[in-house]
Amino acid sequence: MSEHPNYITPAGFAALRAEYDQLFGDERPKLVEVISWAAGNGDRSENGDYIYGRQRLRQIDRRLGWLAKRMKAAKVIDPAAAPDRSRVFFGATVTIADEDDKNRTMTLVGDDEADAGKGRVGWGSPLARALRGSAIGDLRRVTLPAGEKEYEVMAITYPDA
């Protein structure tokens, strides 16, 4: 585990919890039932239900272990309760403009709930680290895989309480 806190929004934590509950309370018991039935059918070496059921069970158990660790290390932070809304902190929705005046809007969320395609950038990403603490009008330089870019912070918003 990292020495850095695992920040996460309440919605992100709820999503992790829902996945854990679904796997543990629904999918895993059904799979155990199928494996038990398949084991009773005799020769297990050529029994596809048994072999693939055991593989899937191991995958589910690994995922459950990972989810349990992430939830235990999670520090839930509600962005709506941000005391200083004039600067970029966890949970802020930020609009930035690059050197070509192309605007991009993103929300800084926990690394476990990041999805760049939906505009959710992980708190530990290079872009989020560069934007931390910035205010409207600040210029921030970021080293990305495509090279170094400079962004200007255009707008900062937080969800309402």
Automatic annotation (TrEMBL):
Residues 6-76 form the Transcription elongation factor GreA/GreB N-terminal domain. Pfam families: GreA_GreB, GreA_GreB_N. GO terms for biological process: DNA-templated transcription elongation; regulation of DNA-templated transcription elongation. It comes from the Bacteria. Gene3D superfamilies: Transcription elongation factor, GreA/GreB, C-terminal domain, Transcription elongation factor, GreA/GreB, N-terminal domain. The keyword Oxidoreductase does not apply. One of its GO terms (molecular function) is DNA binding. Keywords: DNA-binding, Elongation factor, Protein biosynthesis, Transcription, Transcription regulation. Residues 86-158 form the Transcription elongation factor GreA/GreB C-terminal domain. Transmembrane segments: none annotated. Belongs to the GreA/GreB family. GreB subfamily. Necessary for efficient RNA polymerase transcription elongation past template-encoded arresting sites. The arresting sites in DNA have the property of trapping a certain fraction of elongating RNA polymerases that pass through, resulting in locked ternary complexes. Cleavage of the nascent transcript by cleavage factors such as GreA or GreB allows the resumption of elongation from the new 3'terminus. GreB releases sequences of up to 9 nucleotides in length. This is Transcription elongation factor GreB. It comes from Sphingomonas panacisoli.
